[in-house]
Specification:
Radius of gyration: 20 Å
Order of helices and strands: HHHHHHHH
Largest sheet: none
Distance between the termini: 29 Å
Oligomer: single chain
Number of helices: 8
């Protein structure tokens, strides 16, 4: 029953396509009612694209100026989110798997923190050192992407022989629910 923890995951519904109403709701605070009424769908989409571009640039700037402590705090918040969907042990295993993948599963690296981690679900000194070392070299978004890969990797290995579990659907739902938090 090790795999049963994946069955209780909570997922959001699939996103709906971008409609004129959705575009209006996203940019209404920026525009006057007259501009919204008389603007074409293409103009509204262009405004939305500019807003997303600004958001992307500010996020890029934020990621490049993070301190190691900010990175670690953001990653631990992401682990907490995974803990809510799975459990604490599986979240730490996903962290360990993700860090090992990020470090290319090295076995004989001079820097001990870059070697492969034992996936035991314990947030010990080796896991902390590996996370700190990763934060020195990567931004928090890259590390969270690898943690997501760890979650997906563990789902595959834990459910591949279970005939009652649709592994493909579980992977898709997990990816959708966690990818938006990266």
């Amino acid at each position: 029953m090790q795999n049963a923890i994946f069955l209780g995951m909570k997922f959001k519904e699939k996103k709906k396509p971008l409609t004129r109403e959705k575009i209006l709701s996203l940019i209404k605070s920026e525009l006057s009612n007259a501009k919204i009424l008389y603007a074409t769908k293409e103009e509204l989409i262009e405004i939305l694209k500019n807003e997303r571009k600004q958001k992307f640039l500010s996020e890029f700037e934020r990621l490049n100026n993070q301190t190691n402590n900010e990175k670690i705090e953001e990653i631990l918040d992401f682990i907490e989110l995974i803990t809510q969907k799975l459990d604490e042990k599986q979240a730490i295993v996903a962290l360990q798997t993700g860090l090992s993948l990020l470090n290319k599963n090295r076995k004989d690296c001079i820097i001990e923190a870059k070697n492969i981690l034992k996936e035991d679900g314990i947030y010990g000194n080796k896991t902390k050192a590996s996370l700190y070392e990763a934060c020195k070299n990567y931004n928090s978004r890259v590390i969270k992407k690898y943690i997501l890969k760890g979650v997906l990797n563990n789902i595959i290995f834990n459910t591949k022989n279970e005939v009652n579990i649709d592994t493909q659907k579980l992977l898709q739902n997990t990816k959708l629910s966690l990818e938006e938090k990266i």
